[in-house]
Amino acid sequence: MSSPSNNLLSGFLVFSVLIFMASLLVREDAAIEPVVDTAADTADSLVSTSAPSTVHEDNLTLASYDLKKPARRFKLPKQWREISGLAMLGDNRLLAHDDERGIVFEIDYRDGSIVKSFALSDQRDPVADDFEGIAAAEGRVYLVSSSGRLYEFVEGTDGETVLYNLYTTGIGRDHEIEGLAYDPDQRVLLLISKNPKNPRQTGLVTICRWSLDTKQLVEDGHILIPAVALSNRIDSKRFQPSGIERHPVSGNYFVVAARQRTIAEITPQGQVLAVADLAADQHPQTEGIAFASDNTLIVSDEGVSKRATLTFYPVAKGQ
Question: Edge-to-edge strands of the sheet including 286-291?
């Protein structure tokens, strides 16, 4: 017959075994828990706080963005009321430029503050021109004027003036250029026309391609899009582009039109996939467009009589 002490010892041993087995189960559960790298892309997580944890990036289209519900909207300092184009650098830093002076500034898009600014040197004063777009390509930065002049330079430090190369494309004879983007697949800069000057191109939206290799326009490389293919979708008589950017996932071109307050998605072959409205109370004059590394859509609006703004549209949940 077992003594009380033996029963107590047996019970203790059984209890110890159960505790040990339970600890093993807890460790196994912990081992399969997904690890999140909180240090990576910190800036992006601050931009798109409402973005889903799982995104089907191989199928991102204009419909993937809820243009009625921006995640955030920043007002920029008063001196940058004339903001025009946007360009995202490879290390996920955002550049913008002034409309009438060759001044480029970096925006911390987590809070809308200005990190630095630098100027294209023309003797002592910044270069004066009608600047309409900016793009970053292969370690260089480019500005384009409405007449199609391309300014090529390297990024400067805060307060620095930088030298530049100037290329006269000749596009200004036929087009008023209003936006600039880089297509790495073709290694070309995309110059989009707001208004054709050539009567033979009336009724067309034209995207011109400028080769980084030859430093010239691609011969017979214009993308011609019937304006009605864009305007008919928004019940308008015209579609006048004010900015262009290539989507980093799909490779399609996203084009904003300030006067019509719309945004369109177009393939590199010129097929119009979609056109959507931008809210009038949020976008008084949309001039620039860019994408963050998490595919958040960023658009800039000139201040008109107020301060310029940046508006952020993350990829919608479930996309």
Answer: 72-75, 309-313, 297-301, 286-291
**Any idea where the domains of the chain sit in the sequence?**
42-313
Alpha helices, DSSP H only, in the chain? Answer: 4-31, 42-47, 228-231
Pairing outcome for strands 149-153 and 297-301:
unpaired
| Cα separations in angstroms, 57 against 25, 60, 87, 276 | 36, 6, 21, 20
What is the rounded CA–CA span in Å between residue 180 and residue 212?
13
Task: For 197-306, list the strands marked E by DSSP.
Answer: 204-211, 223-226, 243-246, 253-257, 262-266, 272-277, 286-291, 297-301
Pairing, β 113-122 against β 161-162:
parallel
Q: What is the CA radius of gyration of the chain?
A: 26
Q: What is the DSSP letter of 173?
A: G
Q: Using an 8 Å Cβ cutoff, are 169 and 150 in contact?
A: yes
Residues in the chain predicted with pLDDT less than 70, given as ranges, are 1-58, 319
Cα gap 263→275, rounded to integer Å: 6
Q: pLDDT by residue (tens digit) across 185-242?
A: 999 999 999 989 988 888 999 999 999 999 999 999 999 999 999 999 998 889 999 9
Cα separation values, 148 from 76, 134, 168, 223, 315, Å = 28, 12, 7, 16, 33
pTM: predicted TM-score of the whole model, two decimal places: 0.81
Domain 42-313 in this protein, CATH class: mainly beta
